[in-house]
Protein backbone atom coordinates (compact mmCIF):
# COMPACT_ATOMS: atom_id res chain seq x y z
CA UNK A 1 0.00 0.00 0.00
CA UNK A 2 1.40 3.38 -0.93
CA UNK A 3 1.39 6.33 1.43
CA UNK A 4 -2.06 7.83 1.35
CA UNK A 5 -2.29 11.12 -0.52
CA UNK A 6 -4.25 13.79 1.29
CA UNK A 7 -4.71 17.37 0.27
CA UNK A 8 -2.73 19.94 2.20
CA UNK A 9 -4.05 23.23 3.52
CA UNK A 10 -3.18 26.27 1.46
CA UNK A 11 -2.11 29.51 3.13
CA UNK A 12 -4.34 31.22 0.58
CA UNK A 13 -7.08 28.62 0.45
CA UNK A 14 -10.02 29.45 -1.76
CA UNK A 15 -12.58 27.28 -3.55
CA UNK A 16 -11.48 25.65 -6.78
CA UNK A 17 -13.32 27.63 -9.51
CA UNK A 18 -14.62 24.44 -11.13
CA UNK A 19 -16.38 23.33 -7.95
CA UNK A 20 -19.77 24.91 -7.43
CA UNK A 21 -20.89 24.89 -3.80
CA UNK A 22 -24.41 25.45 -2.50
CA UNK A 23 -25.89 25.13 0.98
CA UNK A 24 -29.63 24.45 1.02
CA UNK A 25 -32.07 25.91 3.53
CA UNK A 26 -32.09 22.59 5.40
CA UNK A 27 -28.29 22.71 5.79
CA UNK A 28 -27.38 20.14 3.11
CA UNK A 29 -24.15 21.04 1.27
CA UNK A 30 -24.05 20.30 -2.48
CA UNK A 31 -20.79 20.23 -4.47
CA UNK A 32 -20.72 19.92 -8.26
CA UNK A 33 -17.65 19.74 -10.48
CA UNK A 34 -18.48 19.63 -14.16
CA UNK A 35 -16.10 17.48 -16.18
CA UNK A 36 -16.72 18.16 -19.88
CA UNK A 37 -16.25 15.10 -22.07
CA UNK A 38 -16.47 12.57 -19.21
CA UNK A 39 -18.89 9.72 -19.87
CA UNK A 40 -18.79 8.57 -16.22
CA UNK A 41 -20.54 10.32 -13.37
CA UNK A 42 -19.82 9.85 -9.68
CA UNK A 43 -22.32 10.78 -6.96
CA UNK A 44 -21.50 10.52 -3.28
CA UNK A 45 -23.52 11.30 -0.20
CA UNK A 46 -21.21 11.84 2.75
CA UNK A 47 -22.30 11.69 6.38
CA UNK A 48 -20.05 13.34 8.95
CA UNK A 49 -20.34 10.43 11.36
CA UNK A 50 -17.89 7.60 11.87
CA UNK A 51 -16.26 5.49 14.54
CA UNK A 52 -15.23 8.42 16.72
CA UNK A 53 -18.88 9.54 17.07
CA UNK A 54 -19.96 6.22 18.58
CA UNK A 55 -20.37 5.62 22.28
CA UNK A 56 -18.47 2.64 23.67
CA UNK A 57 -21.53 0.39 23.63
CA UNK A 58 -22.22 1.45 20.00
CA UNK A 59 -18.84 0.26 18.70
CA UNK A 60 -19.25 -0.66 15.03
CA UNK A 61 -22.71 0.89 14.61
CA UNK A 62 -21.60 3.32 11.84
CA UNK A 63 -20.39 0.35 9.80
CA UNK A 64 -23.48 -1.72 10.65
CA UNK A 65 -25.67 1.14 9.45
CA UNK A 66 -23.65 1.43 6.24
CA UNK A 67 -24.66 -2.18 5.48
CA UNK A 68 -28.29 -1.79 6.49
CA UNK A 69 -29.29 1.06 4.18
CA UNK A 70 -28.81 -1.27 1.20
CA UNK A 71 -31.36 -3.75 2.58
CA UNK A 72 -34.58 -2.29 1.30
CA UNK A 73 -36.77 0.82 1.38
CA UNK A 74 -40.48 1.52 1.15
CA UNK A 75 -40.06 1.67 -2.65
CA UNK A 76 -37.41 -0.97 -3.36
CA UNK A 77 -36.24 -4.33 -2.10
CA UNK A 78 -32.52 -4.95 -1.66
CA UNK A 79 -32.50 -6.82 -4.99
CA UNK A 80 -34.30 -3.99 -6.79
CA UNK A 81 -31.73 -1.47 -5.54
CA UNK A 82 -28.94 -3.59 -6.98
CA UNK A 83 -30.73 -4.33 -10.25
CA UNK A 84 -31.61 -0.71 -10.98
CA UNK A 85 -27.98 0.33 -10.68
CA UNK A 86 -26.51 -2.66 -12.52
CA UNK A 87 -28.95 -2.60 -15.45
CA UNK A 88 -27.46 0.77 -16.51
CA UNK A 89 -23.90 -0.52 -15.98
CA UNK A 90 -23.43 1.33 -12.71
CA UNK A 91 -21.60 0.46 -9.51
CA UNK A 92 -22.91 1.15 -6.03
CA UNK A 93 -20.86 0.97 -2.84
CA UNK A 94 -20.16 2.52 0.55
CA UNK A 95 -17.39 2.79 3.13
CA UNK A 96 -17.01 3.83 6.74
CA UNK A 97 -14.02 5.61 8.29
CA UNK A 98 -13.24 6.94 11.73
CA UNK A 99 -14.74 10.35 10.93
CA UNK A 100 -17.26 9.93 8.10
CA UNK A 101 -19.31 7.49 6.03
CA UNK A 102 -19.81 7.64 2.26
CA UNK A 103 -22.42 6.10 -0.07
CA UNK A 104 -21.46 6.43 -3.73
CA UNK A 105 -22.66 5.48 -7.20
CA UNK A 106 -20.73 5.55 -10.45
CA UNK A 107 -22.81 5.48 -13.65
CA UNK A 108 -23.20 7.33 -16.93
CA UNK A 109 -23.87 11.07 -16.88
CA UNK A 110 -27.22 10.47 -18.56
CA UNK A 111 -28.33 8.54 -15.43
CA UNK A 112 -27.80 11.33 -12.89
CA UNK A 113 -31.45 11.43 -11.88
CA UNK A 114 -31.61 7.66 -11.34
CA UNK A 115 -28.48 7.66 -9.20
CA UNK A 116 -29.62 10.58 -7.07
CA UNK A 117 -33.10 9.10 -6.63
CA UNK A 118 -31.72 5.78 -5.41
CA UNK A 119 -29.29 7.45 -3.01
CA UNK A 120 -31.98 9.70 -1.58
CA UNK A 121 -34.32 6.69 -1.25
CA UNK A 122 -31.90 4.58 0.79
CA UNK A 123 -30.91 7.51 3.02
CA UNK A 124 -34.44 8.69 3.70
CA UNK A 125 -36.65 5.63 3.22
CA UNK A 126 -34.71 2.62 4.50
CA UNK A 127 -36.89 0.20 6.46
CA UNK A 128 -34.21 -1.40 8.66
CA UNK A 129 -36.24 -4.59 8.55
CA UNK A 130 -35.68 -6.77 11.63
CA UNK A 131 -35.12 -9.98 9.65
CA UNK A 132 -32.68 -8.24 7.30
CA UNK A 133 -30.84 -6.84 10.31
CA UNK A 134 -30.35 -10.33 11.76
CA UNK A 135 -29.05 -11.61 8.43
CA UNK A 136 -26.65 -8.69 8.10
CA UNK A 137 -25.45 -9.17 11.67
CA UNK A 138 -24.20 -12.62 10.59
CA UNK A 139 -22.46 -11.12 7.57
CA UNK A 140 -20.66 -8.53 9.71
CA UNK A 141 -19.63 -11.16 12.25
CA UNK A 142 -18.08 -13.09 9.35
CA UNK A 143 -16.31 -9.91 8.24
CA UNK A 144 -14.88 -9.48 11.74
CA UNK A 145 -13.79 -13.14 11.79
CA UNK A 146 -12.09 -12.65 8.42
CA UNK A 147 -10.10 -9.65 9.74
CA UNK A 148 -9.10 -11.64 12.83
CA UNK A 149 -7.49 -14.17 10.49
CA UNK A 150 -5.55 -11.41 8.67
CA UNK A 151 -2.68 -10.51 11.05
CA UNK A 152 -1.65 -7.37 9.15
CA UNK A 153 -5.16 -5.92 9.48
CA UNK A 154 -5.66 -6.89 13.10
CA UNK A 155 -2.22 -5.52 13.99
CA UNK A 156 -3.37 -2.13 12.62
CA UNK A 157 -6.56 -2.29 14.72
CA UNK A 158 -4.61 -3.23 17.84
CA UNK A 159 -2.18 -0.41 17.12
CA UNK A 160 -5.00 2.17 17.04
CA UNK A 161 -6.37 0.81 20.29
CA UNK A 162 -2.96 1.18 21.91
CA UNK A 163 -2.53 4.71 20.52
CA UNK A 164 -5.89 6.15 21.53
CA UNK A 165 -7.10 3.86 24.30
CA UNK A 166 -10.86 4.03 24.90
CA UNK A 167 -11.36 7.08 22.68
CA UNK A 168 -13.47 6.51 19.55
CA UNK A 169 -10.43 6.89 17.29
CA UNK A 170 -8.97 3.82 18.99
CA UNK A 171 -11.86 1.50 18.17
CA UNK A 172 -12.07 -0.88 15.23
CA UNK A 173 -14.34 0.45 12.48
CA UNK A 174 -16.07 -2.94 12.38
CA UNK A 175 -16.64 -3.00 16.12
CA UNK A 176 -16.15 -6.21 18.08
CA UNK A 177 -18.04 -9.48 17.78
CA UNK A 178 -19.50 -8.76 21.21
CA UNK A 179 -20.73 -5.23 20.37
CA UNK A 180 -22.23 -6.38 17.06
CA UNK A 181 -24.07 -9.27 18.74
CA UNK A 182 -25.59 -6.85 21.27
CA UNK A 183 -26.68 -4.24 18.73
CA UNK A 184 -30.45 -3.83 18.43
CA UNK A 185 -32.66 -2.37 15.74
CA UNK A 186 -33.61 0.47 18.10
CA UNK A 187 -29.91 1.34 18.52
CA UNK A 188 -29.39 1.48 14.75
CA UNK A 189 -32.50 3.61 14.22
CA UNK A 190 -31.53 6.02 17.00
CA UNK A 191 -28.02 6.48 15.59
CA UNK A 192 -29.39 6.87 12.05
CA UNK A 193 -31.92 9.54 13.01
CA UNK A 194 -29.38 11.44 15.07
CA UNK A 195 -26.55 11.63 12.52
CA UNK A 196 -28.18 11.19 9.10
CA UNK A 197 -29.61 14.69 8.90
CA UNK A 198 -29.15 17.27 6.10
CA UNK A 199 -26.95 19.71 8.04
CA UNK A 200 -24.54 16.83 8.73
CA UNK A 201 -24.31 15.62 5.11
CA UNK A 202 -22.65 16.53 1.83
CA UNK A 203 -23.72 15.63 -1.71
CA UNK A 204 -20.69 15.58 -4.02
CA UNK A 205 -21.08 15.13 -7.79
CA UNK A 206 -18.38 14.95 -10.47
CA UNK A 207 -19.08 14.38 -14.17
CA UNK A 208 -20.36 16.06 -17.30
CA UNK A 209 -23.48 17.51 -15.67
CA UNK A 210 -24.37 21.10 -14.85
CA UNK A 211 -24.87 22.38 -11.28
CA UNK A 212 -28.42 23.37 -12.24
CA UNK A 213 -29.23 19.81 -13.31
CA UNK A 214 -27.73 18.46 -10.08
CA UNK A 215 -29.83 20.83 -7.98
CA UNK A 216 -32.96 19.83 -9.88
CA UNK A 217 -32.23 16.13 -9.32
CA UNK A 218 -32.04 16.38 -5.50
CA UNK A 219 -35.77 15.80 -5.04
CA UNK A 220 -36.66 14.88 -1.44
CA UNK A 221 -33.17 15.75 -0.19
CA UNK A 222 -34.22 19.40 -0.37
CA UNK A 223 -37.04 18.98 2.18
CA UNK A 224 -36.74 21.44 5.04
CA UNK A 225 -37.52 18.84 7.72
CA UNK A 226 -36.57 15.20 7.35
CA UNK A 227 -38.72 12.66 9.25
CA UNK A 228 -37.64 11.96 12.85
CA UNK A 229 -34.49 14.08 12.58
CA UNK A 230 -33.38 16.70 15.14
CA UNK A 231 -35.12 20.03 14.55
CA UNK A 232 -31.88 21.98 15.01
CA UNK A 233 -28.16 21.48 14.31
CA UNK A 234 -26.34 19.57 17.05
CA UNK A 235 -23.17 20.71 18.75
CA UNK A 236 -20.03 18.62 18.41
CA UNK A 237 -20.51 17.29 21.92
CA UNK A 238 -24.11 16.32 21.18
CA UNK A 239 -22.86 14.59 18.02
CA UNK A 240 -20.58 12.42 20.16
CA UNK A 241 -17.37 14.21 19.18
CA UNK A 242 -14.78 14.07 21.96
CA UNK A 243 -11.39 15.78 21.76
CA UNK A 244 -8.72 13.25 20.85
CA UNK A 245 -6.08 12.51 23.50
CA UNK A 246 -2.38 12.67 22.84
CA UNK A 247 -1.34 9.32 21.49
CA UNK A 248 0.29 6.91 23.90
CA UNK A 249 4.01 6.18 23.58
CA UNK A 250 5.59 2.81 24.21
CA UNK A 251 6.85 -0.48 22.84
CA UNK A 252 4.26 -3.27 22.97
CA UNK A 253 4.81 -6.89 22.01
CA UNK A 254 1.52 -8.73 21.56
CA UNK A 255 2.27 -12.46 21.50
CA UNK A 256 0.33 -14.35 18.83
CA UNK A 257 1.11 -17.59 16.91
CA UNK A 258 1.62 -15.89 13.54
CA UNK A 259 4.13 -16.81 10.85
CA UNK A 260 5.68 -13.32 10.86
CA UNK A 261 6.22 -10.43 13.21
CA UNK A 262 3.89 -7.60 12.17
CA UNK A 263 5.79 -4.46 13.08
CA UNK A 264 4.18 -1.03 13.34
CA UNK A 265 6.56 1.84 14.14
CA UNK A 266 4.84 5.16 14.61
CA UNK A 267 4.72 8.68 16.01
CA UNK A 268 2.10 11.33 16.65
CA UNK A 269 1.43 13.56 13.63
CA UNK A 270 -0.41 16.87 13.18
CA UNK A 271 -4.12 17.13 12.44
CA UNK A 272 -5.45 17.18 8.87
CA UNK A 273 -5.49 20.97 8.56
CA UNK A 274 -1.92 21.49 9.81
CA UNK A 275 0.41 23.65 7.73
CA UNK A 276 2.91 20.77 7.99
CA UNK A 277 0.63 18.33 6.16
CA UNK A 278 2.19 18.82 2.72
CA UNK A 279 5.70 18.13 4.05
CA UNK A 280 4.47 15.01 5.84
CA UNK A 281 2.88 13.71 2.63
CA UNK A 282 6.29 13.93 1.00
CA UNK A 283 8.06 12.37 4.02
CA UNK A 284 5.62 9.44 3.94
CA UNK A 285 6.22 8.99 0.22
CA UNK A 286 10.00 9.22 0.62
CA UNK A 287 10.16 6.68 3.46
CA UNK A 288 7.59 4.09 2.36
CA UNK A 289 5.43 5.28 -0.51
CA UNK A 290 6.30 2.68 -3.09
CA UNK A 291 8.90 0.27 -4.45
CA UNK A 292 11.46 3.04 -4.97
CA UNK A 293 11.00 4.45 -1.45
CA UNK A 294 13.91 4.50 0.98
CA UNK A 295 12.62 1.88 3.44
CA UNK A 296 11.37 -0.48 0.73
CA UNK A 297 14.80 -0.41 -0.87
CA UNK A 298 16.66 -0.79 2.44
CA UNK A 299 14.51 -3.42 4.14
CA UNK A 300 13.33 -5.48 1.18
CA UNK A 301 15.65 -4.94 -1.78
CA UNK A 302 19.01 -4.44 -0.04
CA UNK A 303 18.63 -6.75 2.98
CA UNK A 304 15.80 -9.09 1.94
CA UNK A 305 14.19 -8.81 5.38
CA UNK A 306 10.53 -8.43 4.43
CA UNK A 307 8.00 -8.68 1.63
CA UNK A 308 5.67 -5.88 2.73
CA UNK A 309 6.97 -2.43 3.70
CA UNK A 310 4.99 0.83 3.60
CA UNK A 311 4.36 4.07 5.44
CA UNK A 312 1.02 5.70 6.15
CA UNK A 313 -0.03 9.20 7.20
CA UNK A 314 -3.44 9.29 8.91
CA UNK A 315 -4.82 12.68 9.89
CA UNK A 316 -8.07 13.65 11.60
CA UNK A 317 -9.87 16.78 12.81
CA UNK A 318 -7.71 17.11 15.91
CA UNK A 319 -5.13 14.34 15.80
CA UNK A 320 -2.95 12.30 13.52
CA UNK A 321 -0.42 9.49 13.36
CA UNK A 322 2.38 8.52 11.03
CA UNK A 323 3.47 4.91 10.94
CA UNK A 324 5.59 2.42 9.07
CA UNK A 325 4.45 -1.19 8.70
CA UNK A 326 6.78 -4.13 8.07
CA UNK A 327 5.94 -7.85 7.97
CA UNK A 328 9.17 -9.73 8.69
CA UNK A 329 10.58 -12.87 10.35
CA UNK A 330 10.56 -12.50 14.13
CA UNK A 331 14.35 -12.83 14.23
CA UNK A 332 14.68 -9.69 12.06
CA UNK A 333 12.50 -7.43 14.23
CA UNK A 334 15.38 -5.55 15.85
CA UNK A 335 17.11 -5.02 12.50
CA UNK A 336 13.94 -3.66 10.85
CA UNK A 337 13.28 -1.31 13.75
CA UNK A 338 16.88 -0.09 13.65
CA UNK A 339 16.67 0.66 9.92
CA UNK A 340 13.38 2.57 10.36
CA UNK A 341 14.78 4.52 13.30
CA UNK A 342 17.97 5.43 11.44
CA UNK A 343 15.98 6.64 8.44
CA UNK A 344 13.79 8.86 10.63
CA UNK A 345 16.75 10.32 12.55
CA UNK A 346 18.61 10.98 9.29
CA UNK A 347 15.73 13.13 8.09
CA UNK A 348 16.01 15.12 11.34
CA UNK A 349 19.76 15.64 11.15
CA UNK A 350 20.41 15.94 7.42
CA UNK A 351 18.63 17.80 4.67
CA UNK A 352 17.18 15.57 2.00
CA UNK A 353 18.89 16.14 -1.34
CA UNK A 354 17.24 18.51 -3.82
CA UNK A 355 17.24 15.79 -6.48
CA UNK A 356 15.73 13.18 -4.15
CA UNK A 357 13.00 15.57 -3.05
CA UNK A 358 12.28 16.54 -6.66
CA UNK A 359 11.76 12.86 -7.55
CA UNK A 360 9.31 12.37 -4.67
CA UNK A 361 7.41 15.51 -5.68
CA UNK A 362 7.14 14.39 -9.29
CA UNK A 363 5.85 11.00 -8.19
CA UNK A 364 3.20 12.57 -5.93
CA UNK A 365 2.15 15.10 -8.55
CA UNK A 366 1.93 12.40 -11.20
CA UNK A 367 -0.29 10.27 -8.99
CA UNK A 368 -2.57 13.19 -8.22
CA UNK A 369 -2.80 14.34 -11.83
CA UNK A 370 -3.65 10.80 -12.94
CA UNK A 371 -6.44 10.74 -10.35
CA UNK A 372 -7.89 13.86 -11.97
CA UNK A 373 -8.90 11.64 -14.91
CA UNK A 374 -11.23 9.69 -12.61
CA UNK A 375 -14.67 11.08 -11.74
CA UNK A 376 -14.92 9.07 -8.50
CA UNK A 377 -11.54 10.29 -7.29
CA UNK A 378 -12.50 13.91 -7.98
CA UNK A 379 -15.86 13.48 -6.25
CA UNK A 380 -14.14 12.06 -3.17
CA UNK A 381 -11.41 14.72 -3.04
CA UNK A 382 -13.95 17.54 -3.21
CA UNK A 383 -16.02 16.02 -0.40
CA UNK A 384 -13.05 15.36 1.90
CA UNK A 385 -11.80 18.92 1.37
CA UNK A 386 -15.26 20.20 2.27
CA UNK A 387 -15.38 18.08 5.43
CA UNK A 388 -12.06 19.35 6.76
CA UNK A 389 -11.70 22.81 5.23
CA UNK A 390 -15.13 23.93 4.10
CA UNK A 391 -13.77 24.51 0.59
CA UNK A 392 -12.29 22.55 -2.31
CA UNK A 393 -8.81 22.94 -3.71
CA UNK A 394 -7.86 22.23 -7.31
CA UNK A 395 -5.35 19.52 -8.19
CA UNK A 396 -3.10 22.19 -9.69
CA UNK A 397 -3.08 24.18 -6.44
CA UNK A 398 -2.26 21.06 -4.40
CA UNK A 399 0.62 20.29 -6.76
CA UNK A 400 1.93 23.85 -6.32
CA UNK A 401 1.81 23.43 -2.53
CA UNK A 402 3.87 20.25 -2.75
CA UNK A 403 6.31 21.98 -5.09
CA UNK A 404 6.84 24.77 -2.54
CA UNK A 405 8.09 22.37 0.16
CA UNK A 406 11.87 22.78 0.60
CA UNK A 407 14.53 20.41 2.01
CA UNK A 408 14.77 22.75 5.02
CA UNK A 409 11.03 22.38 5.65
CA UNK A 410 11.28 18.58 5.39
CA UNK A 411 14.00 18.67 8.04
CA UNK A 412 12.01 21.04 10.29
CA UNK A 413 8.88 18.87 10.17
CA UNK A 414 10.90 15.66 10.62
CA UNK A 415 12.53 17.09 13.76
CA UNK A 416 9.12 18.09 15.06
CA UNK A 417 7.50 14.69 14.42
CA UNK A 418 10.41 12.25 14.81
CA UNK A 419 11.99 13.90 17.86
CA UNK A 420 13.58 11.57 20.45
CA UNK A 421 11.37 9.64 22.84
CA UNK A 422 8.14 9.94 20.87
CA UNK A 423 7.68 6.41 19.62
CA UNK A 424 4.67 4.13 19.59
CA UNK A 425 5.83 0.69 18.46
CA UNK A 426 3.83 -2.52 18.20
CA UNK A 427 5.13 -5.97 17.37
CA UNK A 428 2.33 -8.47 16.81
CA UNK A 429 3.70 -11.99 16.52
CA UNK A 430 5.40 -14.99 18.16
CA UNK A 431 7.11 -14.70 21.53
CA UNK A 432 10.56 -13.08 21.21
CA UNK A 433 13.60 -15.16 22.10
CA UNK A 434 15.93 -14.07 24.94
CA UNK A 435 18.58 -13.07 22.37
CA UNK A 436 16.06 -10.88 20.53
CA UNK A 437 15.07 -9.23 23.79
CA UNK A 438 18.73 -8.38 24.38
CA UNK A 439 19.02 -6.91 20.89
CA UNK A 440 15.98 -4.70 21.44
CA UNK A 441 17.07 -3.45 24.86
CA UNK A 442 19.79 -0.97 23.84
CA UNK A 443 17.80 0.48 20.95
CA UNK A 444 14.98 1.97 22.98
CA UNK A 445 14.65 3.80 26.31
CA UNK A 446 13.74 1.69 29.32
CA UNK A 447 10.13 2.89 29.34
CA UNK A 448 9.54 1.25 25.95
CA UNK A 449 10.31 -2.26 27.15
Number of strands: 11
Give the tally of structural domains. Answer: 2
In helices, the fraction of residues equals 40-55%
Q: What is the CATH-assigned architecture of the largest domain?
A: 2-Layer Sandwich
Strand order of the largest sheet: 1-2-6-3-5-4
CATH topology of the largest domain: Cytochrome Bc1 Complex, Chain A, domain 1
H/E element order: EEEHHEEHHHHHEHEEHHEEHHHHHEH
The low-confidence runs, each spanning 5 or more residues with pLDDT under 50, are: 1-13, 445-449
What percent of residues are in strands?
15-25%
- Summing up helix and strand content along with how strands pair, one would put the structural category as alpha+beta
Choose one word for the global shape: globular
Task: Find the CATH superfamily of the largest domain.
Answer: Metalloenzyme, LuxS/M16 peptidase-like
What is the CATH C-level name of the largest domain?
Alpha Beta
The number of helical runs is 16
Question: What profile does the largest beta sheet have?
Answer: 6 strands, mixed
Amino acid sequence: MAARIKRAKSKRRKPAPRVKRAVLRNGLTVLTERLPGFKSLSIGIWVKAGTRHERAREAGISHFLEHMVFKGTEKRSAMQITREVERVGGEFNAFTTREYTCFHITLLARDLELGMEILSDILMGSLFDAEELERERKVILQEIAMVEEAPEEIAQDVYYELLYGKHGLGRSILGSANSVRKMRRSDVLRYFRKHYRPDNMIVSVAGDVSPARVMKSLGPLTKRNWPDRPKRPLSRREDGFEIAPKIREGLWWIKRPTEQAHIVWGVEAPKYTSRDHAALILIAAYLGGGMSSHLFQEIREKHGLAYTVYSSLNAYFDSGNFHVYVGAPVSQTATCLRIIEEAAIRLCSQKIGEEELAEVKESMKGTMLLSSDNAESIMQSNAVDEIYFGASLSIEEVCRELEEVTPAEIRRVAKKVFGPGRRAILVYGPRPSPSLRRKLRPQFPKRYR
